[in-house]
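In full, the data.
>
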Amino acid sequence: MPAKRAFPDVEAVIDELKHLHASRRDQGHEHKLGRRERRVLSPADRCAVLAKTSSRCHICGGEIEGTRWHADHVKAHITGAEHEVANYLPVHAICNNYRWDYSSDEFQWILKLGVWLRSEVERETRIGRAAGEKFTGYDAGRAARRERAGSSVELTESGRWGMPGNRHGGPKAFHG
């Protein structure tokens, strides 16, 4: 169900989000069966990707400075997308980490819910305050886990971007 359509009740919202999540999960399982090796982008390829948006993040529109950005697949890798420069756009690491491999319908719902919830938090409604308190606890835990894991990112010996000291880039590596 497209995000522009209104739901009749909360049960319909829950059902749709669960359906979208299940579809994404099933598609990811299918793709894992025929997994291909990721292609590492050369420095020239990374420059070409960054130039596509005039050094702007394709998700938030913010300026990208330096080399600590991700080359994001336009069509998700998990869906079998090719590792070609034409299928990449530049994105801030935080934007890419929150976008994951959501389908366009699912991501539109996330944006719609997020914008609504943001206004609830700002207006200090009961639900906004409760969500804000829950979020600050979640975010503090996330920051602590990243701190323990060593969240800085660097170019590894193999030419991949990843966690320091992990020559293969680790599970959260981004390539490019």
